[in-house]
Amino acid sequence: MIVGRRKLIAGLGAGLALGGCQKILETGPVDDLASGLDLFTRDAQRLVTPRSALAREYTRAEMGPDFRANGNRTVDSPAYRAHLADGFANWRMTVAGMVANPLNLSIADLQGMPARTQITRHDCVEGWSAIGEWTGTPIKLLLDMAGVAKGARYILLRCADRFGDVPYYETIDLIDAYHPQTILAWRMNGAPLPERHGAPLRLRVERQLGYKHAKFVTGIEVIADFREIAGGKGGYWEDRAGYQWWAGI
Amino acid sequence: MANGPDESGDTARVVRRHRASTRVWHWLNVVAVFTLLMSGLTIFNAHPRLYWGQYGANPDYAWLQIGARGGEGYLRVGSLRLHTTGVLGVWEKDGITWSRAFPHWMTLPSNYSLAAGRKYHFLGAWLLGIAGALYLLWSLANRHVSRDLWPRRAELSPRHLWQDIKDHARLRLPKGEAAARYNTLQKLAYMGVLFVLLPLIVLTGLTMSPTMDAGWPWLLDLFGGRQSARSIHFIAAMLIVLFIFVHLAMVVIAGPVNEIRSMITGRFRLPAEDKR
Questions:
Q1: Looking at beta carbons, which residues of chain B come within 8 Å of A249?
Q2: Is the residue at A46 inside a domain?
């Protein structure tokens, strides 16, 4: 079959159009639209799902043999080594910011509160999933104890781990913070939370992707706005690489 | 030229071939589907392994994997391993060798950025989802589906199907009035995309969403787990690629100028009947 001239021109045109695709997507209005889409998606999904819908809870038989650790697997500091050596007996976590009664709690204090155990699936933004059993303190109990002030909209998780000099942190809104499955976990798979999974405390926020699940947590701050904090995008990966603040799909 | 018969002196009859809704949807889909396919490959590159079941990560068995070992790229499906250096797993860009699943020219953005890939993917997804839902409803309402796409009982007889397959294999395409309607294989292909592949790819996409899984847990049961949904999402995407290749090949064979014009202006010149 002989390729006609017009056919050839059409083919070349299609090639050029594809090459121009990325350029079009990177222009102002299209990029703005795409960048704000995570909140649109969140609102749309919240519209069609109950606000307190629970993430699926699995049985132990449904767990895989090995839960992949990701992000920082340790905190590279002598202080953390010392905490690790004494079983985090002196680790403190604070609840501060827009609260009536700031809290300063030990792991034992947290373990003395009502706890929740859940076997849930962890979904990394990269695409993989792992199922693990988590036991921890519901964030709701901590927020109720501290008394959240009017005007508060988010909680900020402060973490001990760093990428280079930059400390890890994350923010979630109060809808996710008050969700029954949102806990500060201190046990995993029936044992104290391992170092590589964020000992002694890590967040579980089961309706978002893995990078929201802050590890090595040192404190919760109740805030109205995160735009003045660190890079202003509400989380370490959001600041560093433009990951969506609402980590969903 | 492929539409040569028109130039043999016959008076070619021009008909209105495609509705405005079909034409608009077609070109929106060109934008959405290419954005989705290419940004989807960027997302795949973040974890180039596919699993069956609820979970799946590096310690678990992947039924499909694209990787690099000893400087050689490979694609492994089950126990079948293909060497793909240069195309998959290991490839070059501007003289620099990269070890990454899909090469830069297939992905959006062309440099690896999972955050940007996701951003474009969801933009494309909303476009595909909204336009697709509207088109589906509109095509049921204006009876495009029942009149033009739904195969007649006689068309589904093995005899008729076999004839259609033979005609396609010999590139003997309908002429005259028959060219103004879809043939049976065409109907089945378009119905398959509209009613099977597109819903499947949207639903498996939603099954990967932790929020949607909480609200609509039946999604996980329907597809046998999040990682199964991810695998099916990828397979459905590859079937759409296959559809696009066949579709483009048919356009070229049937006469690209006439076909493309009919999808832009709606006007289609009927290929003249064979008189010999």
A1: 122, 205-206, 208-212
A2: no
